[in-house]
Design goal:
Blueprint lengths: L1 H8 L3 H77 L4 H18 L3 E2 L12 E9 L8 E6 L2 E2 L4 E3 L1 E8 L2
Parallel strand pairs: 2-6
Antiparallel strand pairs: 1-4, 3-6, 4-5
Helix pairs in contact: 2-3
Length: 173
């Protein structure tokens, strides 16, 4: 800083004129460089905006295709349910038809990576089960065990889709 101040004090009118000419010569170059950099920034912003829009659209299309794949897997189950109901209207055995549809639906879920959560007779696990109530028991082996399943739970490898609603045994005092 001291050098700059000393340099400024040593400026003569001739050297001031030379300095002004240097600045005038540099100004068009700097202006051109600033315009070039502003243009590059605008192009980069537009590219990033387009990238974000494209990513949002691709994500939406992927989600839509996944839903359509699930619907395609479920449609044969609906077809068989329709056949079972039609058969029942004509005097057929509806119970066996509905059981067949249930097995088919479970197979579809398994193909999608969904499995039922084991409950009755298992130890209560709050990560897998939702206790709807307790049932007093005199059997110490049933203390903390699931006595009955009210609603079946389902999971994938990574996630609990719905915990089982269960009744848990509790030792009577």
């Amino acid at each position: 800083m001291a050098e700059f101040e000393q340099e400024q004090e040593n400026l003569t009118p001739e050297s001031e004129s030379i300095q002004e000419q240097k600045q005038e010569n540099l100004t068009p170059d700097l202006d051109a460089k600033i315009k070039e950099l502003e243009h590059e920034l605008a192009v980069s912003r537009a590219d990033f905006y387009n990238y974000r829009q494209r990513t949002i659209k691709e994500k939406s299309q992927t989600r839509q295709r996944a839903q359509e794949d699930v619907i395609i897997e479920i449609l044969p189950v609906l077809d068989n349910l329709d056949r079972a109901l039609e058969s029942a209207k004509n005097g057929g055995d509806i119970l066996s038809g509905v059981e067949m549809v249930q097995r088919q639906f479970i197979n579809v879920l398994e193909n999608l990576g969904v499995t039922a959560i084991k409950s009755t007779g298992e130890n209560f696990n709050p990560a897998l089960h939702d206790a709807s109530g307790t049932e007093l028991t005199d059997n110490p082996e049933l203390d903390g065990k699931i006595i009955s399943e009210i609603l079946r739970g389902y999971r994938t490898k990574e996630r609990i889709l719905r915990p089982s609603q269960v009744t848990v045994g509790k030792m009577a005092n």
